[in-house]
Design a protein that fits this description.
Length: 262
């Protein structure tokens, strides 16, 4: 049998050269559904396996990928952006106001007077974040990666190899973020920010135990927590520098955020 895509000889269900199915039928609803299922979920249940194993052993998934197994699991970058896309679509579908959600996450924002310059600044900032969520989420990744490279130097991984666990864990954590969106839509309440950060840090540190096996389990977990601390501190410094530059280039922003007594 000859492959309809690359014209190579095929003996099984899929072409060994390009992956095209050998038994392609006429276009019907059933055939379209089967094609969609195979592309999204993989020829042998790749997507469900990725979800299951990332839930139970994220570091093992990352180690398989780093060691060269690129068929067993969904790719880390693709999985990260797939989950981020699902989150953004649900955010739009539920018609959730980012500014209102920010108030639920950080109750201190409620102290800002309605119609003030600070409120306008916050709304503008949240609007920009909402319109550029993929970019914002991707910008966060290097801070994690540099932290991992700093605290797991003995692993001998390069920066891209350190990034595999980051992409997988941050992408998979979007399932919990999606649950929080539904909770906010139904109740108007969002999970405590410290609980959110704490569970994310614990999940990543759990993956570090499985990936960085040259370290003792407790030490790998602790270093994983330090990676999270490095991320938040370095991100805060980075954002502070950006804000200072923005205020210098546009003094009107400084006027907007300055508190006023009346």
């Amino acid at each position: 049998m000859t492959c309809t895509n690359c014209q190579q000889e095929v003996n099984g269900k899929f072409c060994p050269n390009c992956g095209q199915r050998s038994n392609v039928k006429r276009i019907t609803f059933r055939e379209g559904w089967n094609d969609f299922w195979s592309r999204v979920y993989g020829f042998d249940g790749m997507f469900p396996r990725t979800i299951r194993d990332l839930t139970l052993r994220p570091g093992i998934v990352a180690r398989h990928y780093i060691n060269g197994n690129r068929v067993l699991y969904y790719g880390p970058v693709g999985y990260f952006f797939l989950m981020l896309t699902l989150y953004i679509l649900l955010l739009s579908f539920l018609q959730i106001d980012m500014s209102e959600m920010a108030k639920a996450i950080n109750p201190y924002t409620e102290e800002i007077k309605e119609g003030s310059g600070q409120e306008q600044f916050n709304q503008g900032l949240m609007g920009w974040i909402n319109d550029n969520q993929r970019l914002v989420s991707f910008i966060f990744v290097p801070f994690y990666v540099f932290g991992a490279a700093l605290f797991f130097r003995k692993s001998k991984f390069n920066l891209l190899e350190h990034s595999i666990l980051v992409f997988y864990t941050q992408g998979h954590y979007q399932w919990l973020s999606i649950g929080f969106l539904v909770l906010f839509k139904l109740t108007g309440q969002y999970i405590n920010i410290f609980l959110f950060v704490g569970t994310s840090a614990t999940y990543y540190a759990w993956g570090c135990i499985q990936l960085y096996q040259s370290y003792r389990a407790g030490w790998a977990f602790t270093r994983g927590i330090f990676v999270q601390l490095f991320f938040w501190i370095s991100l805060f410094i980075f954002l502070a520098i950006l804000m200072i530059i923005a205020f210098i280039l546009n003094p009107e922003l400084m006027e907007m955020v300055q508190p006023r007594n009346n």
